Amino acid sequence: MSDSATGDAHRVAGDAGRADATGRVARDLDQVTAGAGDGTRAVRAGLPEPAKYEPTLPGPVFAAHYHLPGEPTGPYAYGRDENPTWTLLERAVGELEAPGQDGVETLVFASGMAAISAVLFSQLRAGDVCVLPDDGYQALPLVRAQLEAYGIEVRTAPTGGDAQLGVLDGAKLLWIETPSNPGLDVCDIRRLAKAAHARGALVAVDNTLATPLGQRPLELGADFAVASGTKQLTGHGDILLGYVVGRNPEAMAAVRRWRKIVGAIPGPMEAWLAHRSIATLQMRVDRQSATALAVAEALRERPEVTGLRYPGLPDDPAHKIAARQMRRYGCVVSFSLPTRARAERFLDALRLVDDATSFGGVRSTAERRGRWGGDAVPEGFIRLSVGAEDPEDLVADVLRALDASAA
Ligand SMILES: *Cc1c(COP(=O)(O)O)cnc(C)c1O
Fold first, then answer.
1. Does domain 281-405 have CATH number 3.30.450.20?
2. Distance separating alpha carbons of residues 263 and 254, to the nearest angstrom
3. How far away, in angstroms, is 110 Cα from ligand 1 center?
């Protein structure tokens, strides 16, 4: 037992021994999957080269420190800085977010918010200007208040409609979230990145909802792809995780330094579970987005449903832009029922959909988003995350619950 655990640690460490002085790993294994399809890439992403008697995906390496005689050089010295299980997961995420791209670095974090904060707080200084969405993830207003407390000017713009273009002058960083959570608006990453770069601003995209199989922000011109791996990337609703992928070495060195300072690191077990889960990402995302479209199509026929949004619906206001930059449209459908009471009865009546927050898991969940406060949504607004159930079962459950809630 301890022999094989040690063997894994050594082999992974040896494998990552090709890392350069900053700990960045040569991504030569990426060549195996660079030209492959998404399913092939997902099952092989980040795996070490096969070695006799070793597992395909080495188990989690539990280490606060590593044997380190002499000068403290090399990739693995202390557990807050590096871990071989992270290294493999970081390679996997990098291969999915930026297949075949050289010079891309990935860092994993304890949560999506840890990753988001790492980019914002490592890139911005007092006096800098940052542009945030005003309809994005519900913790962004908290982040905004903290940025302002540090003397950073924050401007906001809605996700859709290109209003970001009007507030970019003098900005150091443009933050976009597309599709946005929970409103599912979409912005044109290519267009905004071009405009931001023309003004000398960096661009970060929150890619949580799309996942790297839905959209690849770096290919569309962004400097950072940032996401919560808590959602569909890992997909089972059992771990929190975040990541940052970037191609600018100085910017990424600052993000790495921030992770070291704050220590917002994932545990090895979470990192390993995440890597294991990524093997099924293509199957889950394909299944869940196909079913999400079926659910959206069924909801479209219902007179009590208003404000229905799903970027994959051909008549959705965001579909045109989404179709240009997304390869899959995600598992979240949002809509409103006429009243808060109606929405609560609907959620109560669902049998296959748990009333819970978060999204992206294999079991469908839904919630009345207004219960949290913070999001500018109607009282009857529902965010529905479509899981891996059989589509006909799920559609039938949703329609039955709508009928049952009419009373
Ligand atoms: C959930 C979420 C986050 C935060 O991720 P955590 O893992 O919960 O910290 C950030 N952005 C979006 C779009 C999210 O949905």
1. no
2. 14
3. 11
